[in-house]
Specification:
By secondary structure, the chain is mostly helical. It has helices at 17-27, 53-70; strands at 43-44, 49-50.
Length: 78
């Protein structure tokens, strides 16, 4: 078995990280999503860590799709 990785770059060198991350989240359909959105115990608006059930569900589906794509040639790993 061989696993190949893909390099994912964040930012264009001119856009601040937080601004780029917010844009990426919006493009993925996670508008308004804060840090820790997959953690049901997260509930601290001052720190920006708030659970979001809908975004959690969407992100889990996206993760499963990503893993299915990465391991499509080795179904035993799924």
């Amino acid at each position: 078995m061989s696993i190949q990785s893909r390099l994912v770059e964040y930012g264009d060198g001119n856009t601040p990280f937080e601004e780029g991350k917010a844009k990426d989240l919006a493009e993925l359909g996670y508008v308004g999503t804060l840090h820790a959105f997959t953690n049901p115990a997260a509930n601290d608006t001052e720190r920006g860590t708030v659970y979001d059930a809908q975004a959690d569900k969407r992100s889990w589906i996206a993760m499963k799709n990503f893993l299915a794509e990465v391991f499509k040639n080795d179904p035993e790993l799924l």
